[in-house]
Amino acid sequence: MKKTLFPILLIICYQWTFSQDTITKKIDSLYKEDQFYAGFTYNLLNNKPEEVSQSGFSTGFYLGFIKDMPLNKRRNFSIGIGLGYATNSFNQNMLISKDINENINYSILDDSSVSYSRNKFSTNLIELPIEFRWRTSTATTYDFWRIYTGFKLGYIFTHTAKYKGDLGNFKYKDITDLNVLQYGLTLSAGYSTWNFHLYYGLNNIFNNDATLNGEQINMKELKIGLMFYIL
To answer: I need a labelling partner for 163 at 20 to 30 A (CA). Which of 4, 13, 145, 199 fits?
Structure first.
């Protein structure tokens, strides 16, 4: 009986080991970092005219999904392509107004002579992030270090310029000088869910028709904040 039982146990152990190895290989072969992401940033105006200054707290909020495509066998390098939504606001002292002919004008609000409680422009975008991704994750590890760097293209589908103060209350949603296509470089780095995030805009917020005191407004976006990745 003992002689018969030993080969049976040996066969069972072999089959169990083989099945475990097959499961591991199957998990590895399917391992991806498809992720939902959400984040917020503090928005800065980069390369702004000397007279322009920011006031209050300018914010950005982001939400979307990224498809992960591993590039190597270990799957710690990959390309990520996503689709998301973003909303951004910029509180500053550059007034965007219209004259009697509906032409857009840009001027600086003088705090010493004009009192106002709100002056900002905001945007809502559909975004396409493209990331080159490095991480220390495995098929069974969910807390890991990551560095994601890449490029983001955004399309502004709605925008608003608001003013409330001594000059009246007005809001515009048809600023033709706005560049509806925005693009820039991105960097996200951190551990587990919490990640530092940076966006550096490469093109101007306004096109060449937007001028302040006869000079083109070559402002770009610079955003610093946190990004959360959720499997």
So the answer is: 199
Q: What is the pTM of this model?
A: 0.82
Residue 113 Cα distances to 54, 108, 141, 161, angstroms: 18, 11, 60, 21
Could you tell me which residues are beta bridge partners of residue 39? 62, 227
**Per-residue pLDDT tens over the stretch 186-210:** 999 999 888 999 999 999 999 999 9
Q: How far is it, in rounded angstroms, from Cα 2 to Cα 23?
A: 32
CA distance linking residue 89 with residue 121, whole number of Å: 6
How far apart are alpha carbons 65 and 223 in whole angstroms? 20
Cα-flanking dihedrals φ and ψ of residue 202, to 5°?
Answer: -100, -25
Give the N- to C-terminal CA distance of the chain in Å, as an integer.
52
| Nearest by Cα to 49 from 99, 88, 93, 110 | 93
